[in-house]
Write a structure and sequence with these properties.
The chain has five helices and no strands. By secondary structure, the protein is mainly α.
């Protein structure tokens, strides 16, 4: 008898999840670094601006910690729950995955707010959108890597 997780519609190998997490951290960190970059023409006098590499490395460390300790372990749990569900059709599977990752991102944003802001978690809303964005970029990278691995299997 086959294992139920391999018979499911939603099973992502651990290596793809790990590589998607790495690509997510790099992608989000590059976005943060580029969005906070101030060109020489726009810089004010007597004001210090952090260089791109410094912003990128600090963002990389923060995003790696968020991904490593919050999103990645909880996404393993969410994927097991999705693997145990019987989903019929591609549209139903996509809706279940998006809703599950939306709940994952919201829960991770809430946990992030509790650890960072202590008891003021509901007074600040920026971290929810940031962690949701990281979660959906992570999901997008998983879909891209799964699609690439299916294309490579089809060719060989």
């Amino acid at each position: 008898m086959n294992k139920p997780r391999t018979e499911s519609n939603w099973f992502v190998p651990f290596s793809i999840k790990l590589f998607a997490a790495l690509l997510t951290v790099i992608t989000i960190s590059l976005y943060v670094g580029i969005s906070r970059l101030v060109t020489l023409a726009e810089r004010a006098e007597d004001t210090y601006y952090y260089p791109f590499w410094y912003i990128w490395i600090i963002s990389l460390l923060i995003n790696a910690a968020t991904m490593l300790f919050l999103i990645f372990p909880l996404s393993l749990f969410v994927d097991r729950v999705l693997a145990s569900m019987k989903m019929m059709g591609t549209g139903t599977r996509l809706i279940y995955v998006i809703v599950a990752y939306l709940l994952l991102g919201t829960g991770c944003g809430f946990l992030f707010a509790i650890f960072v802001f202590r008891m003021d978690a509901f007074q600040h809303s920026g971290q929810y959108s940031y962690v949701l964005m990281i979660t959906f970029v992570y999901l997008l990278w998983q879909f891209i890597l799964i699609w690439i691995s299916k294309q490579r299997k089809r060719v060989s």
